[in-house]
Every structure is written in C-alpha cells, then in structure tokens.
Amino acid sequence: MKAGKIISTILLAIVVAAVGFVAGFFINVTLSKPESDTLALGDLSIHFIELGNKYTGDSIYIKAGETDILIDAGSRYDSATAITQYVDQYVTDGKLEYVIATHADQDHISAFVSTASREGVLEHYDVGTIIDFPRTNKTGGDASVIGRYRAARDAAVERGAVHYTALQCFEKTDGASNTFQLADNIEMEILYNKYYTSYSSDENNYSVCMMINQGDNHFLFTGDLEEDGEKALVEYYGDSLPECVLYKAGHHGSATSSTPELMAAIKPQYVVVCCCCGSSEYTDNNLTQFPTQDFINNVAPYTENIYVTSMAVASVPKDEWSSNGQVKSMNGNIVISVSRSVVSVQCSGDNRVLKDTEWFVQNRTWPSNGK
Ligand SMILES: [Zn+2]
Predict the structure, then answer these.
(1) What is the CATH number of the domain that holds 87?
(2) 370 alpha carbon to ligand 1 midpoint, in Å?
(3) Which of 3, 13, 81, 155 has the fewest C-beta atoms under 10 angstroms from its C-beta?
(4) Rounded Cα distance, 89 and 92, in Å
C-alpha cells in the first residue's frame, strides 16, 4: 500500500470512528424523561406500562403511525385505572384498532374486565379487532377472571369489534389474516406457535406470538411462552427468524423463557422485562425471582440494554407479599421509539440499564461472555 493510500485509509478510519462516536452520543442523549408532547415520539413507539399495584403482569401499548394497539392488560382488575390513564395520553380518538390478549392468566387479562367501581379496558375503548389465545386449560365459570374476560370480549364484539383467535390469524381462516398493515411500512404479523393446536400443561405456552415489522426493524412479543414453545418457534422459522431490535422478555424474565436458542436466533438489541424486580410474589429463592439469573445469562451475550418496569421496595417473605410487599418504579413506564432507524429509550423512572443498578450489583452477576 502506498503512503498516500495509507494516510487516506487512516483518515477514513478516523472519520468512521467520529461518526460512530457522534451516533453513539446521539442515542445516549435521547435517554430522557418522556415528553408530554406525543409528537416528540417516533413513527413507531412501544410503551411498557407500570400496572399500579405490586403484582407482576404485562400491558404494552404500541402506536404505529395513527394505529393504536394494546397487548395484554395485567396484572389485576385495578390495573385498568393505571393502563387507561396512561394510554389515554396517546389515543386521541378513543379507539384501539387492535387488542391482543396473549393468554388466560390473570396477570395478562384482568384489567380488560370492568368491575363495579372501575371501567375495564375493553369497555373504556372502542375496539377494532381482538386477537386472543386459541386454547386454555382454565375451567373457571362466569365469575372467574377467564369467565369475566370472555364476557367483556363478547360484549365488545356486540358493540362492533371483530374477534379472531391467533390460530385463525395464523391459518388465515374465517376472514382472518396473519398480517395487519398498521402504517406505511409497518405491519403486525401473528407468528406460529405449536401450542395454538396442541395441549400444554403450562398455560403460558398458549401465548399469542407476534412480531412488528418496520422495514428491517423487528420487534418480538411472545407473552409468557416457555422453553418448549420457544424451541418450536425457532425450529419452525429456522433462518428466517430475523434479528430483532426489541424482544419483550418472555414470561417476565423467568428462567424457563428467553432460551439460548431463541436469543441466538433473534440477537436482541433491546430487552424489556415487565415485572417487579426482586419481588417474592412467586418465590423466596432470590436467583429465580424475576428477572432471573438464568435470563441474564441468556440475554447478556447479545445486549446490555435491559430495562425493567418496577421493583420491590424491600425483600419480604413470599407468604407476606400480598399483605406487606411494596413496589416502586425501576425504569417505570418504558418507551422504545424508532424514527428514521434511530432507536431511543425514554423512561419515566431511572434511565439506567439493569446491570448498572444497585439491585443488580447486590443480586445478580453479569456473565463473563456478556456485552
Ligand atoms: Zn405472566
């Protein structure tokens, strides 16, 4: 290589490094508190909502252009207040074009239901299309959460909503489609799940699986899908399962989801966990409290951009959680926005990624092969 060519190569490297640095700086400075002005958000924004109580659950609001989508309404009946107050800031016409109920556990469907003192999500909004789980093992009657969810869903259908199961969407039967155009260049795709058609002893495996495709940017939502379901998903799609900008941590960051096989396929850049970090709601075992050490080990090789909605104020024994447990915001309401391929993260609480928090330092280990 001639001297002049070496110098120009060095100059090019400096320019590339400088551009990389400026781009990195820009992404960092976009980490800020949410603006009240919704116009500040990008073409696609995905909001992970705190649920107004101490129980882990999911509720995710998505705005794609002018289309409004809600995935799940956990964690209890009273979460309807937190969810509708949050979503009302963004839904200007009172209509949710799409509602997805991933599976029949209460931490995903309770707040769809109206109670004597509170309007549920399905009653509060005019709903376009409801997509829910084809199967459940739950046998509860009219007064159970599943019974009340079905009644609320059927009432929405009476008022004009269209209802499909994820199986109808995936198989494109009864007028359903597996892809829904949300905005220019943004579509929602209902994915394969082995357990749409086969029995699982674990309710979580019945979860509706969905991907948002924004050009080459992909965003994966698998509800509480467990290990068996994830492996079947990876096998079914093979190499066509794309790398993802965002992965909603399966099953609240449990040890039995976010398997190495799925992570190796999607190589997520951002991962959001809907849970109360370090809560004893389900177990006294620190390492399997959400988000679990196994989850960290599986995700860390691909990204350090892990965000968590809420956290336990203090450690209390499991059998005292319902009476004495308290939660506060961790990252709080988390908004991932993508505009012109620039990803930004805005948190109502702390902006730090999980591994930089005191909770993480005291309770988890970042693996040596982590980013
Ligand atoms: Zn759940």
Answers:
(1) 3.60.15.10
(2) 26
(3) 3
(4) 7
In a domain, 232, yes or no: yes
Residue 152 alpha carbon to ligand 1 centre in Å = 20
Low-confidence ranges of the chain (pLDDT < 70): 1-42
Q: Are 305 and 266 in contact (CB under 8 A)?
A: no
26 in a domain, yes or no? Answer: no
What is the predicted pLDDT for the residue at 25?
40
Taking residue 66's Cβ as centre, other Cβ atoms within 10 Å add up to: 11
Ligand 1 center from residue 290 Cα (angstroms)? 11
Ligand 1 centroid–CA 64 distance in Å is 24
Compute, in angstroms, the gap from residue 75 CA to the centroid of ligand 1.
Answer: 8
Q: Residue 289 domain-assigned? A: yes
Which are the contacts of 19, defined by CB distance < 8 A and separation ≥ 6? none
What's the rounded Cα separation, in Å, for the pair 212 and 181? 10
Expressed in angstroms and rounded, the spacing between residue 161 Cα and the centre of ligand 1 is: 25
Domain of residue 239, residue span: 37-363
Q: What distance in angstroms lies between residue 83's CA and the mean position of ligand 1's atoms?
A: 16
48 C-alpha to ligand 1 centroid (Å): 14
Q: What is the model's pLDDT at position 7?
A: 52
Is 250 contained in some domain? yes
Distance from the CA of 342 to the center of ligand 1, in angstroms?
30
Note the pLDDT of residue 353. Answer: 98
Instruction: List residues, by chain if needed, whose CB lies under 5 Å from ion ligand 1.
Output: 107, 224
Q: What burial letters (b/e) apply to 168-180, b meaning 16+ CB within 10 Å?
A: bbbeeeeebbbeb
Distances (CA, A) of 117 to 53, 78, 127, 243: 16, 9, 21, 44
pLDDT tens digit string along 303-344?
Answer: 999 999 999 998 899 999 999 999 999 999 999 999 877 999
Are 42 and 339 spatial neighbours (Cβ–Cβ below 8 Å)? yes
CA of 270 to the centre of ligand 1 (A): 20
DSSP state of 147: H
Other beta carbons less than 10 A from residue 123's beta carbon? 17
Find the 350 Cα to ligand 1 centroid distance in Å.
23
pTM equals 0.88
Count of domains observed in the chain: 1
Per-residue model confidence (pLDDT) at position 340: 76
